[in-house]
Design a protein that fits this description.
Layout lengths: L1 H22 L15 H4 L1 H10 L24 E5 L1 H4 L6 E6 L4 E6 L7 H8 L6 E3 L2 E3 L1 H25 L4 E7 L1 H15 L12 E6 L5 E2 H6 L4 E6 L11 H6 L4 H13 L3 H5 L5 E2 L3 E6 L12 E5 L21 H21 L7 H21 L43 H6 L2 E3 L5 E3 L1 H8 L1
Parallel strand pairs: 3-6, 6-7, 7-9, 9-11
Antiparallel strand pairs: 1-2, 2-3, 4-5, 8-10, 11-12, 13-14
């Protein structure tokens, strides 16, 4: 009897310890060792949040739901707006905007609409390990949505980029569901820059706001130099490894579902997570906005921390009342703008020298190369240590579209020279006897060099 009582006490203490650790875990713990982001890195975040919010408006000249600071967008610079009626249920609505003030061509994609069946179909078009692409796994439905938009808009983007000149960047931005589409569009465009007039990799950017888990870890690290994910404190979506269709299929009992996911993932070893090539992650470099602390009432002046994490990459669900509210685009825009305003005021009142842009750029490049090497040393499936030659070497080095003999492969195009992005994407993989997608061996060898 005494032995049974002792085991029962040990079991109760263990459960109490686990419950205490999980209930007291706050989102700020995920990035407590990360360095702060620079002013230059923070500045685009609230601006691109407003660009995504503008997708919800029917007329930018007479907005119905403007943010407190306004959209800050010139309606005359709006190149195209695509509502639900024109997307054929294949992707969320989006817009294309030429920001001449900041020299950017922006393609902004809105988030999930809970009242639209077509958005759920995009989420449901996936199962674990179904879609292999570019040496890793991606969400099948989001990849199809990305290729659909490129099929429609690549000609316009190519033409506009050619007209505005080499100083402009091509920026993809999306929130929630749209963040996954934007991230996978970026991956495709980076691998086929010749279809956009040979645009340099450094001129391509993606801002995934409240990002969905849409690609495997090796791809998330591989494209960390062009894809930036922005997470507000306790946001549940970047932390939930469960497929998106399960999350939104249980949206009406979400707190219970998140608790069960939290309980399950607590007992999965970190090594097992890293060694699963099908496990999806939030893409690219992470920017974590932190505004609350444990056992502290109210919100504090927010700060932004950044890193390219390998292990502990937002793996723990945060059980708090802000888990779902931190996913809202309006809150992310508000807090990121507050950070930028605070930084601006501090810069006007202090005489301390700021970090030089060149030094910051070198730091980011060093961290990016270190993350690639660490992914290899930790045996992350399909990870590579060297991505591609530098910009100065691009002219002499063979591109991704060349085969092993140095000959350029032909580009699949529609009549009239228009690129068929569905066919171009499928050139990267083939189907096996079971009908599943498998990465082509020759392309895998090219990427490894």
């Amino acid at each position: 009897m005494s032995v049974a009582c002792g085991l029962e006490c040990v079991f109760c203490l263990g459960c109490t310890r686990w419950a205490w650790k999980r209930l007291t875990y706050v989102g700020s713990y995920d990035s407590e060792s990360w360095p702060p982001a620079s002013d230059e890195e923070i500045e685009p975040i609230p601006r691109l949040c407003r660009a995504i919010l503008a997708v919800y408006e029917d007329d930018l000249s007479h907005p119905r739901f403007p943010p407190p600071s306004g959209y800050g967008m010139n309606p005359q610079w709006l190149l195209k707006r695509v509502p639900y009626e024109e997307t054929e249920g294949r992707c969320p609505p989006y817009l294309i905007y030429a920001d001449h003030d900041h020299r950017e061509i922006i393609l902004a994609i809105r988030g999930l609409n809970l009242s639209r069946e077509s958005d759920y179909k995009v989420l449901l078009d996936n199962r674990l390990g179904r879609q292999m692409f570019d040496g890793g796994y991606v969400h099948h439905g989001l990849l199809k949505a990305a290729t659909f938009i490129l099929n429609r808009e690549s000609e316009m983007l190519r033409r506009v980029i050619g007209e505005v000149g080499d100083e402009y960047k091509l920026v993809f931005a999306g929130h929630s569901l749209g963040s996954g589409v934007a991230a996978l569009m970026t991956v495709i465009v980076v691998n086929h820059r010749d279809q956009f007039g040979g645009i340099e990799r450094r001129r391509i950017r993606c801002y995934a706001i409240a990002p969905a888990r849409c690609m495997s870890l090796n791809l998330a690290v591989k494209y960390a130099d062009v894809i930036y994910s922005v997470v507000l404190q306790d946001d549940f979506l970047p932390r939930t490894p469960t497929p998106l269709e399960h999350i939104f299929g249980s949206i009406f009992c979400l707190p219970c579902f998140l608790f069960l996911v939290c309980l399950r993932d607590t007992f999965i070893p970190e090594s097992r997570k890293l060694n699963d090539p099908r496990r999806l992650y939030a893409p690219g470099r992470m920017y974590h906005i932190v505004e609350r602390k444990f056992c502290r009432c109210g919100r504090f002046p927010p700060e932004v921390r950044t890193a390219i994490p390998i292990e502990g990459r937002f793996e723990h669900i945060v059980l708090s009342c802000n888990t779902t509210s931190d996913h809202a685009l309006l809150w992310i825009e508000r807090e990121s703008q507050k950070i930028f305003d605070i930084r601006k005021e501090d810069a006007e009142t202090t005489t301390a020298p700021t970090q030089q842009k060149m030094e910051r750029k070198q730091t980011l490049e060093k961290e990016y190369k270190g993350a690639l090497e660490r992914a290899v040393t930790m045996n992350v499936p399909h990870a590579i240590s060297l991505l591609e030659p530098t910009e100065d070497e691009n002219d002499s080095a063979p591109s991704h579209s060349e085969n092993q003999n140095g000959n350029h492969s032909k580009t699949d195009s529609k009549p009239g020279g228009r690129t068929n992005w569905d066919e171009l994407v499928e050139k990267l993989f083939t189907r096996n006897e079971s009908g599943n997608f498998v990465l082509r061996k020759d392309i895998g060898n090219i990427e490894g060099h």
